[in-house]
Design a protein that fits this description.
By secondary structure, this protein is of the alpha/beta class. The chain has six helices and seven strands, in the order ααβαβββαβαβαβ. The protein has one domain: Rhodanese-like domain (Oxidized Rhodanese, domain 1). Helices cover 32% and strands 11% of the residues. The strands form two sheets. Strands 1-6-5-2-4 form a five-stranded parallel sheet, with helices on one face. Strands 3-7 form a two-stranded antiparallel ribbon. The longest helix is centred in the first third of the chain and has 15 residues.
């Protein structure tokens, strides 16, 4: 009898809170500001969540613009003088625009301006265009960026939480990317 009652309670909990039952955290009220590589919610209010198959269908149909928000690895501050520094290549979904460092929970005004300019360029100024935001699996950067983009008046935002990990796992091609250029005065501090 107790086992049956416990099973009913667990089933009801899973029905009412499916994300928690699947090991997914609930949506926070604000932006995630730490521990960015951790399980993400299953949902994002106001945003369509895409599976890898759905993202691939949008990509094949050229029905949306893809925006990669994966941070760019910073140059180590302790490199000896004269050491050549080479960024680790970023592989992203072909045709994407890469706007690194725009998914942090708190961003500088210059980074926010960079994100806004990148979105205008990617969408040709059409705030109704489908914008697909991604980085990697279990990365809050894309969740934060998709949430932030809604506040800019974009009405057709999709979040692809599996990002390049899901894309690659599905056997889809990735291509080496370069970040969208920043104005010179913004390059000193990415956040």
């Amino acid at each position: 009898m107790r086992a049956a009652l416990a099973g009913l309670i667990l089933a009801a909990f899973a029905f009412v809170f499916p994300a928690v039952a699947q090991g997914k955290p609930p949506e926070p009220d604000g932006y995630r500001t730490e521990d960015y590589r951790a399980p993400v919610p299953a949902t994002l209010a106001g945003v369509r969540v895409l599976t890898t198959a759905e993202a691939a269908a949008v990509w094949r149909a050229k029905a949306g613009v893809f925006v990669d928000v994966m941070p760019r690895a910073p140059k180590p501050s302790n490199l000896p003088a004269g050491t050549v520094w080479r960024d680790k290549p970023r592989l992203n979904i072909p045709g994407s625009i890469w706007l690194p460092d725009t998914g942090y929970g708190k961003i500088a005004d210059s980074t926010e301006a960079y994100l806004k300019r990148g979105l205008v360029r990617a969408t040709a100024g059409n705030r109704a265009a489908l914008v697909v935001i991604y980085c990697m699996a279990d990365c809050w950067m894309s969740w934060n960026a998709a949430k932030r983009i809604l506040t800019y008046g974009y009405s057709n935002v999709a979040w692809f939480p599996e990002g390049t990990d899901g894309w690659e796992h599905a056997g889809l091609d990735l291509t080496e990317a370069q970040p969208e250029p920043r104005p010179v005065e913004e390059t000193a501090s990415p956040r």
